[in-house]
Amino acid sequence: MKIAISGKGGVGKTTLSALMAQYYADKGRDVLVVDADPSPCLADALGFPHELREKLTPVAEMEDLIYERTGAKKGSIGGYFIMNPRVDDIPERFSVTHRGVRLLEMGAIETGGSGCICPEGALLRTLVTHLLLRRDEVLILDMYAGVEHLGRATADAVDAMLVVVEPTMRSLGTAAQIKKLANDIGITRVYLVGNKVRDEEEAEFVRGNSPDLPVIGILPATDKVIEADRLGVPVYDHAPELVEAARQIADKVDDLVMARSEGNGQ
Pairing with 83, which of 66, 77, 124, 182 sits 20 to 30 Å away (CA)? Predict the structure, then answer.
């Protein structure tokens, strides 16, 4: 099961990632969640204790590892480097586990843009390819508003891309952009999740203004997300109404993946 979660900054994709990751773990699934946001905060949403958060460093910031694996020369610009470096040991070496959820912070490429030909980009894209194609677990990618870490080679491995939106036209506009980026590289299983929805009128607003994406679930508006952050506890433990909504979304994703497997004769 490979799930990518994206959306405009602040819409709640990290909250959804944390809820789904803990739900799958509690069901006994082997779960790896990857924080690919430029400002990682999944550890907090999952309630990882301070001593474990201290052990986390985004892979994109591990300069020595990047230079070692790619053969790039430190401090140089341009030149030759390995485009498919070894990455198979990274998930175990640099992740931490709490309550059955393994967390890896990916980080972001800070220079050159999403398509930069650079050692950092080569390592991150190879790592994502490894995670999507060569590992057998529930993988949840908490991504920024785009598909920077994905590519055509991994498009078919993404079982579902969930785009989280608020009930606003601006947020839905970002969803349309993400849909186009995903479709451009061959990701067609893209679904919408409404978040911070206060009532049925706002839920209908999301459904009625969806950029031609199926709405797979709705998360209700609640102050408990902020309360959980302030108290330093997992949102999963503090907001049962969100857990129930996330459970329904996760079960629908399960059904979609199963239907796809049966359709392929697997």
Answer: 182
Q: Containing H/E element for 220?
A: strand 215-220
Amino acid at 73: K
Helix, coil or strand: residue 192: strand
96: its two tokens: 């931490």
Q: In a 10 Å sphere around its CB, with 0-12 CB exposed, 13-18 middle and 19+ buried, how is residue 250 labelled?
A: buried
**Half-sphere exposure for 154 (CA within 13 Å, toward CB):** 23
150: CB partners within 8 A, 6+ apart: 4, 128, 158, 182, 185, 187
pLDDT at 112 over 60: no
Domain hosting residue 164, numbered range? 2-263
Q: What is the mean pLDDT of residues 238-244?
A: 96
Classified as helix, coil or strand, 214 is coil
Model pLDDT, residue 121? 82
Which phi and psi angles does 51 have, rounded to 5°? -65, -30
State the residue for tokens 């607003």: 205
DSSP secondary structure letters along 101-134: EEEEE-----SS-TT--SHHHHHHHHHHHHHHHS
pTM equals 0.91
Averaged confidence pLDDT in the chain: 90
**How many domains does the structure of the chain reveal?**
1
Domain holding 64: CATH number?
3.40.50.300
Pick from 266, 186, 256: nearest CA to 217 = 256
